[in-house]
Design brief:
Shape of chain A: globular
CATH architecture of chain B: 3-Layer(aba) Sandwich
CATH superfamily of chain B: Thiolase/Chalcone synthase
CATH architecture of chain A: Orthogonal Bundle
Structural class of chain A: mainly alpha
Largest sheet of chain B: 6 strands, mixed
Structural class of chain B: alpha/beta
Shape of chain B: globular
Strand content of chain A: under 5%
Oligomer: heterodimer
Distance between the termini of chain A: 24 Å
Strand content of chain B: 25-35%
CATH class of chain B: Alpha Beta
Radius of gyration of chain B: 20 Å
Strand order of the largest sheet of chain B: 6-5-7-8-2-17
Number of domains of chain A: 1
Largest sheet of chain A: none
Number of helices of chain A: 3
Order of helices and strands of chain A: HHH
Order of helices and strands of chain B: EEEHHEHEHEHEEEEHEEEHEHHHEEE
Helix content of chain B: 25-40%
Chain lengths: ~80, ~350
Amino acid sequence: MDNILKTLQSIHAEYDYSASDDYIKDAMLDSFDIVVLVEKLEDTYAINIDGADITPENFKNLSALASLIKKYADGPKS
Amino acid sequence: MQMVQNHKLTNKKISGILSVVPKHMVRFIDEIDNYGFSKEKCIDLQRTIGFNERRIVKDDECGSDLCLFGLEYLIDRNLLNKKDIGAIVYVTQTPDHFMPPTSCILHGKLQCPRDVLCFDINHGCAGYLYGLVQAFLLLTIIDKKVILLNADTLSRRSCSYDRNIYPIIGDAASVTIVENSNLGNDIYFNMQTDGTRSDWLIIPAGGFRMPSTDKTREVKVLADGNRRSDDDFYMNGAGIFMFTQTDVPVSVNELFQFAGKEIADIDYFMFHQPNRFMLQKLAKKLKVPEDKMPNNIVEKYGNSSSVSIPVAICHNIADQLLTKQLRICMAGFGVGLSWGTLLMDIGPLAFCSLIEK
């Protein structure tokens, strides 16, 4: 979780990502931020997130992001 | 279960492709104050999405002006003879007028004979495939050359403050000559439409459903902080991203199965160029090596809708296509929503280049 928080804050240092349950609704991540976040998460965790998983739902909060990363970290490497 | 209707044509070929881009260049870095992005975010977006330089028309220049420039370029160099033209197919979302068809205007400017058929097709990012298929089908009744023209100047209908649209939009035109062939080469394609998502890419006002008024022309600040008017081009960016990552791979995979081909059989995947990130993700999903699917057009010219495939071809593989045959897979996807995949051998071509007007 700490690594994910650090990555989020590298995009927007001004937001407290631990205090929101919906980054999209709270306007803390827009679609461009998600693209940048995907790239950073892929680098950090050595994963390849399938384009079909790049949905607002999978990026809405820390728990959703942790589940997404776990899915790829635990799954076959592509 | 068969989800896609696949088709096969034979004995048709592309004999030349010319792309025309405006000389007028604009740079993302000069526009960032319009979008409210921080400098750091701009650097990230340049790297990931490919926001950089784009070619757009100046003032009131139209797509047909770029096409006419390209056609005269070919005629002046004896690469096209007006007597050989059997039909003109003009694909655009930015016609000169609601009426007459822009193909007819070009027919007049070229002083073509009266038996040259003229068609306008209103299509966007899948429009190169729609135009090619229409041109191939015309060749079943016409034994002359069919001139496929693709042109768009959507920069003229995009709000310069709209960060979803304006940093990627480019203007361009292309001339593709299609004719019958006795080489027996097979052309495989499929095309699909989902009109329930037709409002995902739309210019809401300015037609007959919502005529342009002072109110529709007013630029509004939207809930997400973005800005545009109802007269401007709107894109549901998140929806379109999902569409390209889910529907498009199905179309490609189904066509390969129908054609009995493997990804490794293809020399190049010349796909519509929405942005670098989307294409990188598509390439990974389809297991296509990145060097076989160029994604460098948005950063050099911008996304020019149906013209982006010919621009990608002329920019990246023109030299090869002048000397040899390549097996090319094209995919177009966008407004409609419409999408499709086409697989064919192209080359050696009589001409293949990108010129500036």
